[in-house]
Amino acid sequence: MKKYITFFTLMFVIAITVPFSVFAEENNNALKLAEEAKSAILLEQDTGEILFNKNDQEQLPPASMTKIMTLLLIMEALEEGKLNKEEMIRVSDRAASMGGSQIFLEAGEEMSVNDLLKGVAIASGNDASVALAERISGSEESFVEEMNKKVKELNLENTKFQNTTGLPAEDHYSTAYDMAIIANELLKYETITEYTSVYEDYLRKGQDNEFWLVNTNKLVRFYPDVDGLKTGYTNEAKYCLTATAKRNDMRVIAVVMGAETPKERNAIVSGLLDYAFNQFETNKLFDKDEKITEVQLLKSKKRSIDIVSNQSVSTLHKKGETEKDITTEIVLEEEWDLPVKKGEEVGKLYVKDGEKILSEVPLTVEEDVEKASYLTLLKRTMQEMAKIR
């Protein structure tokens, strides 16, 4: 009888051990190549938590991953109404003269913002990048100033841009960490993946100079759920890639810099994505633009102001772990300097595990907040006085 008990006990131990051993081995293999990378990082979007990093602060040439910042400023201009997708842009001599990857724009040609955006996001067109930069800022040089200004706004200490394209230039550098942060900021404009996820498309469809766009990021086609973001290559930078994928409400960003071959680059990123989706999951607390709270403002035209988060809010944990005791704390500005523009930060949402702050998320106003007129203020003041009596 004891022999049977021992046999079944052994079989049970094998049954529960083998899957975990295989699972652990798969995760080790997924990270093996990443450990050998020159520079790499894996970031979860909502929490900003770093799941893996290797030399992520090393300053390296980012090549065409530079265009992630270019795309960020383009999306900002669209959001702010400084640009619209249907607008036709006349291509300058300078934009048409850009070398490297291009969509072969001709000087004097007119192309819509929407098609130029496709040219940048899908085909990494240097000419399209410069054409859009010149339209937004007047010149590429002025646009680059805005790029570096944005770097400072994001508190990035190891990035400096000299052009919009990533073509080789002295004193043009970034890091895996900084590229992940810029990518995270770009992905807040959720429509960007409508461009970066496209594997192939056409420009000038049906015309003699029709151009076939093919995404430089092959993982868009060959890795499930990858919907961006940007490749890069120069002789100095080697093969680079910032990729993003979303599965079950969890979006992650993987960056690799300095790989020797495109195959190695894609394998490292694929391994990082495998690791993220095999090991971790998120619990969503709030959707992007969901109302978090409201505030009553005596001096605003509209008395009740909705406060929202400009990004989705989640917690992150390893699969199989019990959920943490999560709480949230809202801290709003005490004094408001009206008017306040839509999207302007007016406070923070803190996600906590006990006293430990897991993440802090900017809170913004859902719409423009205008000053109340003198008559409205007088009326409200009298109402408040009547309540006191």
TrEMBL record:
<feature type="signal peptide">
    <location>
        <begin position="1"/>
        <end position="24"/>
    </location>
</feature>
<keyword id="KW-0121">Carboxypeptidase</keyword>
<comment type="similarity">
    <text>Belongs to the peptidase S11 family.</text>
</comment>
<keyword id="KW-0573">Peptidoglycan synthesis</keyword>
<dbReference type="InterPro" id="IPR015956">
    <property type="entry name" value="Peniciliin-bd_prot_C_sf"/>
</dbReference>
<comment type="function">
    <text>Removes C-terminal D-alanyl residues from sugar-peptide cell wall precursors.</text>
</comment>
<dbReference type="InterPro" id="IPR018044">
    <property type="entry name" value="Peptidase_S11"/>
</dbReference>
<keyword id="KW-0645">Protease</keyword>
<dbReference type="InterPro" id="IPR012907">
    <property type="entry name" value="Peptidase_S11_C"/>
</dbReference>
<dbReference type="InterPro" id="IPR037167">
    <property type="entry name" value="Peptidase_S11_C_sf"/>
</dbReference>
<dbReference type="Pfam" id="PF07943">
    <property type="entry name" value="PBP5_C"/>
</dbReference>
<keyword id="KW-0961">Cell wall biogenesis/degradation</keyword>
<dbReference type="Pfam" id="PF00768">
    <property type="entry name" value="Peptidase_S11"/>
</dbReference>
<keyword id="KW-0378">Hydrolase</keyword>
<protein>
    <recommendedName>
        <fullName>serine-type D-Ala-D-Ala carboxypeptidase</fullName>
        <ecNumber>3.4.16.4</ecNumber>
    </recommendedName>
</protein>
<dbReference type="InterPro" id="IPR001967">
    <property type="entry name" value="Peptidase_S11_N"/>
</dbReference>
<comment type="pathway">
    <text>Cell wall biogenesis; peptidoglycan biosynthesis.</text>
</comment>
<dbReference type="GO" id="GO:0004180">
    <property type="term" value="F:carboxypeptidase activity"/>
</dbReference>
<keyword id="KW-0732">Signal</keyword>
<dbReference type="InterPro" id="IPR012338">
    <property type="entry name" value="Beta-lactam/transpept-like"/>
</dbReference>
<keyword id="KW-0133">Cell shape</keyword>
<feature type="domain" description="Peptidase S11 D-Ala-D-Ala carboxypeptidase A C-terminal">
    <location>
        <begin position="280"/>
        <end position="371"/>
    </location>
</feature>
